[in-house]
Amino acid sequence: MYSVITTATVRAMDVRFVCVEADVSDGMPYFEMVGFLSSEVKEAKERVRTAMKNSGCALPPRRITVNLSPVNLRKVGNIYDLPVAIAIMTSMEIVRARDLEDFIVVGEIGLDGQVRRADGILPIVCAAAEAGIKECIVPAANMREAMNVGGVRIVGVSSVTEARDYLNSSREKRDEWIRKTMVKMPEAAAESHSGEQCAGQPDFADIHGQYMVKRACEVAVAGMHNFLMIGPPGSGKTMIASRIPGILPLPDFSERMEISKIYSIAGELGSDEGLIVNRPFRSPHHTISVQGMVGGGAIPKPGEITMSHGGVLFLDELPEFKKCVLETLRQPLEDRRVSIVRATGRFEYPADFMLVCAMNPCSCGYYPDRNRCNCSVAQVSAYLRKISRPLLDRIDISVEAPRVTYKDLEGKGPAGETSARIRERVTAAQAIQKERYKDMGIRFNSQLTGMNVERMCGLDEAKKRHMSEIFEKMNLTARGYYKILKVARTIADLDGREKVELDDLNEAVMYKGIDEKFFGEVV
Predict the structure, then answer these.
(1) Would residue 490 be called left, alpha or beta, if left means φ above 0 and alpha means ψ between -120 and 50 degrees?
(2) pTM for the whole thing?
(3) CA-to-CA distance for 391 and 6, rounded, in angstroms?
(4) Fold of the domain spanning 2-181
């Protein structure tokens, strides 16, 4: 008997539906799976054979053929076991072939017949709902993420036996089954967020001194500008970066869905999580490879660039990263997407993130303090040259983090603001930007393109003459010039001004002046 079950596979961020066709007929006992399969999918036949035996549905000594179509699509991953088992059981008439065209089935099974957690369930269920599929049978461990999608019934099963029993049940029993197995969804953090600092979250109030660095960090987060801190060891660069999550406004529902899809595909969405409710903050070690940063594999998985989408990618000890790894950041920082080409096709992932970097000014960390720095001019030059001009040009705000004084540590300086207070201003500034750009398809000032920057800044003739002088004096590129304008626009938004003033421009220029101090001679 012939049967067909619908399942799906994920290619980058796209979902492709796959038909699992099974035929059980008379002939020499044989079990064959075809359809451009990867090694892990080919191995599914042994898992399915043993799992069905241990579930009381042993395969008969007949010819069994399973085809996964379309045949020109490479089948990879761990989600085909359960649909293959159900398709075979339908052909064996163990499962009644009734309204199966309204189902989509995904899941890995173990040799004991238990259905195990699978990757990429959230985007698959979203695609099924958009395609008008009525029900999705998914592993019980994936219930929380799947239930965030409306317009489709979610059936969580923990074994092959449960899937069989559900499909053989009447409509009334199926409804009762879903009511019993439905998990209670936790309240979204965005709805319960009161604006107070989360328990255990590092707070900006803990940082002594570094008022200019904290101000620059606030401006950077408000406009999602790329941010670089340069200073000696112990000046608080990493501490400041680690507190950025505390001042990031929470994403809205559409952003949470997009971020959660990425984490689901990467297998980093925990079974107790419904959606990712906070913006990502990724801090990879400097030994990371190009594949780890961009994404890799025959069917590429998301790299750190994509895992940072909608949030922050923090690179501590920036010059210690391999130069080839740093250069891979250049195009994603401009395009806000990662495109990976393999023999099996092109894979595109979103990569709209804020880059935050921290570095020492030299190998020992104390340049230009010649009383403490023991590096030669050539050593300092070689160290700073690890950061290329094209990459530096893509960083909107650069700021020096000076050595912390004893007065700061003693607490005699002005009291530091809490993260909650800073987050209020950042949230207000981002709300202004989202309203301003609601018809332009962007959210933040950092996403403005060249043709719109000057229009949004509204510079009069005096300010244009001032910026003309700055352009020539600092030997700016066009990209650097527009980045200054975008930062000035963010500073004005933080202060609630409709137009960019001269002070805003001067502060934005100050955040680029450090480039010449440290990199002017060597880049």
Answers:
(1) alpha
(2) 0.90
(3) 46
(4) Ribosomal Protein S5; domain 2 (3.30.230)
